Amino acid sequence: MIEIKELKKSFGSLEVLKGINLTIPKGQATGIVGPNGAGKTTLIKTILGLVKPDSGTIRVNETKLNGNWQYRRDIGYMPQVARYPENMRVHELLEFIKGLRNQPAVYEEELIDQLNLGQELQKQLRTLSGGNRQKVGATLAMMFNPNILFFDEPTAGLDPKSSQKFKERVKVEKENGKTVIITSHIMSELEQLVDHVIFILDGNIRYYGSTKNLLAESNEERLEGAIASMMEVA
Amino acid sequence: MNSLLLHIAKNEWKSLLRGKWVVGYGLIFLLLTDSLLRFGGGGPEALLSLSNVMLLFIPLVGMIYGILYIYQSREFIELLLTQPIDRKVLFWGLFVGISTPLMLAFVVGSLLPLAWHSILMTAAAPSAMVLGLGAVLTMIFVSLGFLFGLAFYDDRIKGFGFTIVVWLFLAILYDGLVLMLVFTFGQYPLERFVIAVSMLNPIDLARIMVMLEFDVSALMGYTGAVFNRFFGSSLGIITASGMLTIWLAIPTWIGLRVFKKKDF
Amino acid sequence: MKTFGTMKFFIHISLLLFGLLVIAESAAAQITVRPEGPVTSIQVGIDQAAAGDTVVVHAGTYQENNIEITKPLVLMGIDRPLIDGDNEGTILVIRADSITVQGFDFRNTGRSYIRDYTAILIDQASDFIVEDNHLYNVFFGIYLAETNRGIVRNNRIESYDRREASSGNGIHLWYVKNPEIIGNHVEGMRDGIYLEFVEDARINGNISSKNNRYGLHYMFSNGGTYYDNTFRKNGAGVAVMYSENVDMKNNLFENNWGASSYGLLLKDMRQSNIEGNRFYRNTVAIYSESSTNIQIKNNHIEQNGWAINIKSSSARNYFTKNNFIENSFDVRTDSPRNNNVFEGNYWSNYEGYDLDRDGIGDVPYRPVSLFSVIIEKQPESLILMRSMFIRLLDTAERIMPVLTPKTLYDEQPKMHRIP
């Protein structure tokens, strides 16, 4: 459960978030969409604690954010660009993060198996392909079984087969009652994974509702068309 | 908290050791010190040459190293920030993790030749002084580099440019300005002022401590009472070490503040 | 035959006479002084002795002063008897030739601003030996006045009165010929060893340290030598003045610190040698004023503030084959002209090269740095010593001398230390 009230953030004179109000209930899979520079990344970074808001409040699982860090025990985050210390080996990275979180890595082996990372474990991260790095990122996000998951453009570097496997895994997480939040430019992908959409434009939420409703309201068959028509209106 | 800090630091140590260039940096000092001792004559000569190199290059290398680390590890730092750990712990873990290997590379690299040319035994105090100063300077300037990296997080050109300018200023220009001041206000009693001004620059501070070790006999020849008191007693060493500690604390503290408040 | 017999007779007679003499000699009496008597006073013992006798003094404390010896004899302490002068006057005065004083402790002379009270005074005597005595808390230690051919050997003189005016000299020589001052240890006096109007002194193997003024003070004394001495932590180092033909070899001058402190101060000296000495950590290793024709050779001058401070009144002095190692400043002078020669020294601050590999640098070394000129003008700039900025200035000046003496340079700087 994530509750956001009147969240504002500016970088210098640039207002990025202009008063966001948002509640994402537990167990909901939500896609965040919007054009580049609309404030998607800032919104996610604010929830993750990477960016400090100017005003407004954020609650994650009833914990109000104020520079604290304990609430992130419940969050798994898969970044868009996965770059790690180059000469570190994959298994060392996993060990390192395990040491940091001090939580049981319940799904570690399962994920390695599912995402086919077994042969990569002994390799140095710089020798990994972009896709494999993404998979490492996905493993890090999900292996501690957190109940909120953030995926930032998760399938951007994945080959179709891996992409398919990843999506299956996300569906399972969803079914297990996890709160899943995904940003993506690939609408077809979002369609498969989420049942709610947040559309952000110029630092404001223009639409927040179920994908079904959105499609019905906009008379479109596909999410892509619905979003495109919203952008035109704007 | 401490075990977590150590966990982060250890991870940096491991990857820095594998990165080889910290080892290379240590080797440079090893070769330098060894050849200074081999071809440059006895202990004090070599130690003075070593301290000259140290005073000039450790600040530059330390700052570049600190800022480069921030720039190269942005995504990794951001990933770590999304983990359930305190920013303060992360900052200390990273700072300790990256500054200590560079410091050790210098200390070990210079220490070994000093040991096998048996200077350590014959000139223990000056050796310890030079090595200790190099170590402290490393920490100070890595911490400054860290700070600049955080301050110019999104503009590398500016960050590097600023670093070079700061180095030029502290290593060379500052003393030119002091000399100018001395000649401009030569008719006034300047000793106290000159000592105070020199204490504001960490490179000058370290240099003054080297002076106190190697040039006391000359400094005693100076007739000014303030200088004599400062250089002739332990007052000089104590004041200078105190100031160096402050110099180590302030950039690190500011770095921590910036790190805690920063939007990544 | 007869002549032979007469000869034999004479030989017999002379043997007999000689034998008698030997008996007389060995019969020279030995007088014993000891606290439990019968003779309890050293002066009484001396008075009882005849010329050539030995006065043996056993361990104990003797409260006596102004003891006088006026005939040749040996005054010998057994197990270091102590003569306590009770802070009054002089303790022992030697006023005859061929006297030996050996194995005593002396303590507590008088102190005066008018009289030179001393532990052992040798007054107008010759061929004396003062040996193996320990002197504590004395005004003057051993005082030689108008003596000839005496030996002062292996004595130890210590006194700690920090005021220069109220302390006297350790070994004081005044109008003395051919003295030998050997292996003594003098500490905490005004001057450790003081010479005035002394001819052909031999001062070897002494240690003179922590004296309030000079470790050795040489005035108007020609033709002496001093070898193998150590001068350490003296208030103003060693001063050699108004003398000629003095040989100074293999001495150690170290840790003489202070605003007006020198390893070796030369003033109005002529025709002398300074050779094989080691100067270590003095404020100024060698200071020279109005001195001429001094050979300064094969010295090791290391980690001093200034290696050489030579005033322009000094001329024709010759510095060669010296090692100048990590001195804060090599040479300081007060004139843009140079009347002295620097040739073939090793300078650790030399940054030149040796392309033809003959061991001699291919460019001359200029030992007067711009920085030394700068601090002469503005002493506060001393704080900038060894800074990069100053090093750049110095290097520029060495390439193109503007403010430093153009003719003061070593044209044959050695690339390596001279052994």
Range of strand content of chain A: 25-35%
Q: Give the helix/strand class of chain A.
A: alpha/beta
Overall radius of gyration of chain C? 27 Å
CATH A-level architecture of chain A: 3-Layer(aba) Sandwich
* Strand numbers in spatial order across the main sheet of chain A: 6-7-8-3-9-10
Strand order of the largest sheet of chain C: 1-2-5-8-11-14-17-20-23-26-29-32-35-38
Q: Share of helix among residues of chain C? A: 10-25%
> CATH topology of chain A, anyone?
Rossmann fold
What spatial form of chain A do the alpha-carbon principal axes imply? globular
Proportion of residues in β-strands of chain C? 35-45%
Mind telling me the CATH class of the domain at 48-235 in chain C? Mainly Beta
DSSP, total strands of chain A: 10
Q: Just give the CATH class of chain A.
A: Alpha Beta
Total beta strand runs of chain C: 39
Question: Any chance you could write out the topology, listing elements then pairs?
Answer:
The complex is a heterotrimer of chains A (234), B (264) and C (419).
Chain A: E1 2-11, E2 14-24, E3 29-33, H1 40-48, E4 55-60, E5 63-64, E6 75-78, H2 90-101, H3 108-114, H4 130-142, E7 148-152, H5 160-175, E8 179-183, H6 187-193, E9 196-201, E10 204-210, H7 211-218, H8 223-233
Parallel strand pairs in A: 3-8, 3-9, 6-7, 7-8
Antiparallel strand pairs in A: 1-2, 1-4, 4-5, 9-10
Helix pairs in contact in A: 7-8
Chain B: H1 2-19, H2 21-39, H3 43-72, H4 74-81, H5 87-116, H6 119-122, H7 124-151, H8 156-184, H9 191-199, H10 202-214, H11 216-219, H12 225-232, H13 235-261
Helix pairs in contact in B: 1-5, 2-3, 2-5, 3-5, 3-7, 3-8, 3-10, 5-7, 7-8, 7-10, 7-13, 10-13
Chain C: H1 2-26, E1 30-33, H2 42-48, E2 54-57, E3 61-63, E4 67-69, E5 74-77, E6 82-84, E7 92-94, E8 100-102, E9 105-107, E10 118-123, E11 129-131, E12 134-136, E13 140-145, E14 151-153, E15 156-158, E16 171-177, E17 180-182, E18 185-187, E19 193-199, E20 202-204, E21 207-209, E22 216-219, E23 225-227, E24 230-232, E25 238-241, E26 247-249, E27 252-254, E28 262-267, E29 270-275, E30 278-280, E31 284-289, E32 292-297, E33 300-302, E34 306-310, E35 318-320, E36 323-325, E37 329-333, E38 341-343, E39 346-347, H3 370-377, H4 388-399
Parallel strand pairs in C: 1-2, 2-5, 3-6, 4-7, 5-8, 6-9, 7-10, 8-11, 9-12, 10-13, 11-14, 12-15, 13-16, 14-17, 15-18, 16-19, 17-20, 18-21, 19-22, 20-23, 21-24, 22-25, 23-26, 24-27, 25-28, 26-29, 27-30, 28-31, 29-32, 30-33, 31-34, 32-35, 33-36, 34-37, 35-38, 36-39
